[in-house]
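Attaching the record inline, Q. Sequence:
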Amino acid sequence: MSAPAYATELPASLTSDDFIAFDQKQAALGQLLFYDKILSGNRNIACATCHHPTLGTGDRLSLGIGEGGSGLGTERTAGKGGDRIKKRIPRNAPGLWNLGAKGLHTLFHDGRLSIAETYENGFNSPAEEWLPEGLETLLAAQAIFPLVAQFEMAGNPRENEVAGAVHDRIDASWPILAKRIRVLPEYGRLFVEAFDHIDTPDEVTIAEVANALAAFQAVEWESFDSPFDNYLAGDKAALSPAQERGLELFYGKAQCSSCHSGSLLSDQKFHAIGLPPFGPGRTRRFDPMVRDVGRMGESDRLEDAYRFRTPMLRNVELTGPYGHNGAYPTLEGIVRHHLDPAGSLASWRPETASLPNAPWLEAIDFVVWNDKREMARHARFRDIAPIALSDDEISDLVSFLKALTGTASVANPPFGIPKSVPSGLPIDK
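Structure, as predicted:
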């Protein structure tokens, strides 16, 4: 039998050569930092709280509960009294798979972090020219921003010294966090052992913290051993018949690969697909409206309005809910939206979203739907056209997406969850 013809050529298989080599001692140190709440302003939330391995490296929420919340995943609550959250996290917590890939050049849903010489420091980032020196990778640069985000990890002004420093200037807070870490004897010793240029703990800066966090995330969640990867590597029996039919649709009639292209299954560009809007959103600094303008918030260009970065797809089965705001809880839901954006938007209901109860925030959760002009603007930006697929074809496409799930890389990560962390603070498990 002849091999099937694809409208788009299949990508080359990923190999270990496609990933940055990280130091194992730094990765082991990063494991502790990733699960340690000492990196948050009020010492009550860790990186792992919103990117937990038992939750696919996400939090299973449409819009997460950051600083001030309590619990993990769908059981996380929004706090109470003076400690309750002031705002939902505006966007869905993305998965952390394959962020150590050499070909990765842009991060965040709106691409506000990228490899560039915009500020002559190697990156275009929210810190602009105040980005710390010594950040070795894109992932290291990314790691320091949740630490200083008010509603993610920093906390509110007047609550702690980190949040207060952020409101002075973004780079004023990072030295405070670095000192918190290095004065703990165990952390100090581990940094000296892991970094050749660090002779004494007092030399540790936020750059070493970030580089360790990046090393751990890259090593822990490197994944290219899915049935699809095995298929690309030459094992044509790796996919079931339904998955192979889904593969043909993905690279053919369904046109998924027009954006989910290349070995990382992302063109790393920005596209408007008309997801149902809700939540506080992210917009430009001077814009008081409750909405999310996507890439335009970074570029300030009208043609970028409502466009979001194409996500990578390995282990996508594990990383729901889907979309930049987690609008759809299932793969079938987000697939059907791609095939019929207008129809899916019209039939979408607020109860579809996974939003922890926070009555004091409900007034703005879906207020954008009452803004006819904003909804009309939102509807004018569409980069995908309707495609007719049968229910059986949609089922095959979903089957293929599940064939992107890793095996050993998912079941047996190199480090796992530590039993304790040097600060002595509790770990989310």
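The first strand starts at residue 106 and ends at 107. The radius of gyration is 21 Å.

More tomorrow.
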